[in-house]
## 1
Amino acid sequence: MPPPEEEVPLADDETSPGKALKSLEALIEAEPDGVDPEVIATADALRASIGTLEEPSLDIDPPPGIGPSLPHPHVSSKRKRSSEEHVKHENPPKRAPDNDKMHPNNVFADGNPDFFQLAQWHQPLKPYLLKTSDNKSHTIDFTSWEATCELNRALLSTRYGVTYWRIPKGHLVPPIANRANYIHWIEDLLKLSRPKESESVKGPTIAGLDIGVGANCVYPLLGASLNGWRFVGIDVTDVAVQCARENVENNEAIADLVEIRDSRSFDGMKGFTETACADSSILLPAVTYDEMFAFCMCNPPFFESEGEACRNDSTNFGGSAKEVSCPGGEQRFLETIFKDSLVLTDKVHWFTTMCGKKSTTKTLKKLLDSDKKVKAIRTTTFFQGKTARWGVAWSFSPDAGKTNQTPIRRYIGIDDECNR
């Protein structure tokens, strides 16, 4: 299947250090009060110390196997910018250390990957390497969509066995370690309680539903490769459905485990209930009456409008208007998911979502607390660098309700919140 948009080369002259600096300076000048502090720090570092260094050659064989079976690569606690040349930074900007807060099952729990070694395994990443003044550490250009895209391809291939991954230019490039934390949290929930039909936490008897799978299809790719889970991914745009299917079909090892559905045309549960409006429902049009899922998961659109999304263009990871915005933003989106869950009480064992705003987390928890049919509520925080996202899960299963006081060891051994 041809890609939905023409593939864009991931290395060009616009990534030279001088042009990268000019781009950052233009961004800072356009929005001096709203720009990310990391962007300012990177511009200062580039301005002070642009230079070139020759790269030592290494003969490194690509690692065998799929993600968890791989040995951990050498790790580094430093990350940042890139170009076609190798840039020397006297005072390279640092990202907040994140390995101490990652899920212990995450392949990056021991630290950030060694970017130089990663680039030997995945050569297209090499043009985006930056080198620090000690000539030992490397990072990449996190301000470049192309660089973060190639980083994802390298990580998915070398750590998870996902050998094919393509997305259209400008679409969302999800941070892999953060998304893997979500997968591992669902593992924890399933250890507490899962459907009787599910033989274990891993394997094809666990079926998941990804709401808004996106062109990147990251959750099904990770969940299927890590745990052998079956997935149904749903979306409502041509490009997301087509590209997600392409990403699945070109990974033969897991292709049979993942189905991508277009919610606009799939003949699901609408018409089976009078308690939900098919036009406003998100889940009901996309699932059949006799389907059962161990969990559903969601990374909802963050912004309330396309205009709001366009005003926040300092992000490094892209995102089309449909991927990052919807009427009412993530709060209204999740309120709709909650209403759908009241119809699908026995069809999904764990309803889960990621929240980008803490205020949304609180609003959702109030909704859950107010309904006595909800038997279990769990929350957590996903950390990566300076970024925090919140996870909320709920279940209508009495079996899940029995685990409310059972602690989950997450990241650094702190129990998650539990309100029932």
## 2
Amino acid sequence: MTKLFMVSFEGMNYDILLNWIDKSYLKNFQRILREGCLDKIECGRIPYEAAGLTSIFSGLKDSEHGICSYWKAQNNNYVPEIWSSDEIKDYMFWQKKDYEENSFNIVNVFGTHPAYQINGNMISYCMHNSLRYTYPSTLKMDLLKSGYSYIQDTGAFFKNQSKEKFLNKVLEIDSLRYNAGKELVKNNPDISIINFTCIDRLSHFYMNELRENMVPLKDTAIFQAYKKCDEILGDILNCVEKNNADLILFSSVGFGHLKNFVEVNNYLAEKGLLKWYSARVPDWNHTVAFEAPQGCHGININKKSFYTNGIISDSDYTEVLHEVMDQLRIMRNPYNDNPMFSNVVLGKDFYKNDTNVPDIIIEPYDWEYLPYGDSYWADKVMRHYQTGWHRKSTVWGGLGPNISPKEKLTNITDFVPLINRIMKKFK
């Protein structure tokens, strides 16, 4: 029986990875480059893990699955709602009929919470406190009894604590994640999928260390994250060899430098399109337009027919929509007076549908200055402290008996066809 390991190291930057491979800092990634394939790949047009991972495991474009962010792009009570597994699971390849005879381990993948029944084991990606993060439900206790504890990413939120404290906790979480995943491999699944997040999480807050040469390279948070993932990869490669398996590694997003997030809500307020109730909360009864949740790069219109305190009637919607778009097109970057956006388009045109997508998509002119997003979650994750953000070009690699060193993928939607070929699912 063919065995496949799929490993996500979220947040990888291809140029950084190749540079450190060339300097022999990452011996296991270096082995992938030498014996298999390691290359760039294009991810989502608005790169975010939620959209990217859904595309990777479904083979669908963002316009087909409609996932823009961890949170729904439009929420009638204005509070960003996290997508549930019930709304996403049917997209995933492991739910398809062709795979009903295959067994799986799935660890820390967006769209799996609450955990649900599969042929195998699941530890969900959970963004809040919950006891419903494993399938079977007894799995968390079974792991604990075997000496394996598990902490979700929410166990290490950045709160402007010391670098050492945040760094160590993030690395600890990925170590615990790997140990739990390794224990599950003893069940001999056909396909093992695991998502590691330390590179992404540390790159958000410490990308500036690489640009500013603030500390020696080996003391930078990002270097330590790449080293941790290289160490994990080495152990996984041993397991891959032992099982004569194939390995696919990837990141659903690339990464780059960030100078500032720009609060578009402040601009909308200046133009009389948004009124503040308090310093961080709009007065919905007097607000025309506002930012969608972070990662969407979107603006929503406060429609009476959808929002609990909406003020724009359906008859006025189109006219107001285009008035807001005209104002966004002339917005200047408050930090350098360059244009803020390269393009302002209708959400339904950008995604080719209008199912829970922002009314307006705002495409950045300069990717080092990005829209802040709705403040409810953007404040919680302290976006104004971040010095790095996602990019459209990311990394993938492969090694194994069914993966050619000359294997070429161009977009993250190409993974499912590759998986089907490896697992001999030709329909």
## 3
Amino acid sequence: MSSSTRNALLIFLGGALAATLFWVGLDGREDTLVVESADAKKEPVSPVKARGNRDVYYPNTEDLARNEMRVISCGTGMPNQRPAQAASCWLVELGNGDKFLFDLGTGSTERLSGLEIPYEYLNKVFLSHLHTDHMGDMDALFVGGLISGRVGPLHVWGPSGATPETGTAYAMKHMQEYLRWDIAGRAGRLPASGQVLEVHEFDYKGIGQVVYEENGVTIRSYPANHVIDGSVSFTLEWNGLKFAFSGDTYPNKWFTEGAKGSDIAIHECFITVPDLVDKLKFPVSRALEVGTQIHTPPPAFGKVMSQIQPRIAVAYHFFNDFDTTPSILEGVRQTYDGPLTLAEDMLVWNVTKKDIRVRSIRYEEHVWPPPPAKAAPPVDTSVMQDVSDFIKSGNLDMGDVISKIYERANELYGTDEKPRTK
């Protein structure tokens, strides 16, 4: 088998090109092989048995190996999310059972639900910054997780700001304020322990500072350059594997240095200036400002990855369409010739020390919440609130139909429940 075959590169192109494969020979990258060689021994194809080693990942059908890291793109798009791409969100699952969310942008919890993971396990979120396309679904996970089986706190790590009012703690406190009506109506009906949001704010200026260290997992933060002070990047290290995530940033020395040695390095790679002008109708001055000063343009992404030299680089934060992706790829390849994925929503990277496998995900759109991972503790019904007598005075008489529903339920489940409202 030739060296170029051994060092094959898989690039996923979005939209109409999602199934197109490009193979590019790379020197000295034998540890990034993601497919079997053509001359590998093949098993007979059975007419009745399921084939193993599928080219697609179906959630909740594969065990995670003890030494394996699984990374899933739950949101890869731009600030204006769309059906094809939610805003930024990356799930990292480890073979020790830990799961971490990096960003939780608008629309991403819909993708998370399709993975059928009990919400008790989706309880650790790391925010790179406080733009809504990176944290806009925090309320959905906080409340949605509560009503879908999470009985413990939701933990959130995020950066401080230049002022207290622009930091993560302030944002999360006021999110809970605007959710006050929602949470008040669930008091006494759902476990109080699941209604807790624990915020861990850290200094955005810390360079390689440890913000999380438990169960063999170390997560570090690095300052990022994005619009105003208060953005960060992250690395996660566990069991000899390393994940790096830039968040949004102009290329900077802190992430480039901190991400070296990564198995998988994810960095923003914004839409090209001509596409910002043609597709979004930006004035040229704004397109240049947004596309090259606030975000990282494709050639700059490539230059960053050429310095990091990850086992696989992942570009995100652009609309992955048949007519925009080629210009992204062309720009990246001006400065980087290493292993690359041009990300779209619902891809999975299975990472081990031996290899990295990249696949698309197919999930059930009519999925229901998975069974709770833990039994719910007793609920203190004494704190339950009810509607006022004024609202009750507007109730129609439904006693005949409601009583029959209760009678049937009691008969089915051996209970003796009585309706509060008849």
## 4
Amino acid sequence: MMSRRVKTSSTEPEPLPLSASRRRSSTQQLIQQSSHLLAAAHLAGLKTTTTKRVNSRRGGEQLNNDELEQQQLQPCWSNYSVGLYQEGARTMDTVFQICMKPNSRSIELKMRPVSGVRNHLKRNLIAASSSLDVIRETDLVQRIASFNQMKRLDLSFNNMHAFPRQLCQLELLESLNLSNNMLQDNDFPVDVDRFQNLVELILDNNKLKKLPKALTKFKRLSRLSVRSNSLSELKNLDNFKRLKHLILDNNFLSGVDESLRPLERLEILSLANNQLTSLSPQLFRSTLKHLKRIDLALNQLQSIASDLFMLPHVESINLSRNQLTRLPNLPSSYVRPNPMFSIDLSSNQITCYNDYLLLIALNVDLSSNRIKVIPLKAFKKLGERHFRTRSLKIDDNPLVDPPIEYCKYGLRDIHEYLVDNY
């Protein structure tokens, strides 16, 4: 098994340099804020270590070891981490991080198995095939549940086969990440409906064949990601009235029209790499009017409704790698107030160029299709600003007119060729 490197990134900008006195004050404040966590750790019989950041260079010069030891260690600004190691665990089997943001009582707990911290350990002490079920092999579940102010919980990459019922006590939880586990449809207790403050739920890379009914009662949910499971149907979304982001890539969905109708606030919809053959025009006409980004790549779509291109707020449409042979016609009177950023139609079987594409989008990708001719009339509606601001990618087509060599240098050269020859 290859080692997995866990990268952490701060969601808060780095502050301006502080004076020494202010740094000491901030450090003391952070330590005070985390003191109750350290106390809880000692009560649980755990060893604790603190993780801090060291500036190893000063004025471009490398500090020697003595200077490093004398230099005051500064805590990470974005979080104060407390590593908890279970007493008697073999060579740091599992590392837990409890992160507290400065000036806030919110708590973030991240649990990773060996695969997530292997790069920090001596590799000869851990077999390459090591894998732990953190929930089964530690007694920390109840201790985690006692942090009743916790807002974010990350239990990804833990080989979990069931969600611990004790954690349902975390009623203030706003974000729950259960990705990359072994969870199936019936592995969630009914008590999870106590997460009524949940706004983000991540279930990527599990074993779900449908969305568990126990997880469909979160009325405040704003972001739901269930990519790379085995979903063949999508049901029970009626309570998700506030849902804005829905990520369902890499599943086996063939029909989603009825399921999406309650999601009137949806802004981002990703259904790439499923088995969709069609989408109802009514879906875009009356329901998904607030969509900003939609990804339908790697499906089996043979046609698409014009209503998709006329969504008022859409910024990006990805229809690449489908089975489209033609694009819909738009009403001659239709004028888009502001062009969307991109339309990706690459790797289809489109044979005709539609002249409205560069009027409604800044970037159009028609590469790897079957287009032979771009007619002059397609450029008659384009002004000077369009040639400066638009982009057309049309390589890997059997172009005859204009010749493909004229299409490599941009819209202006294509237009000049057509004007000179017609």
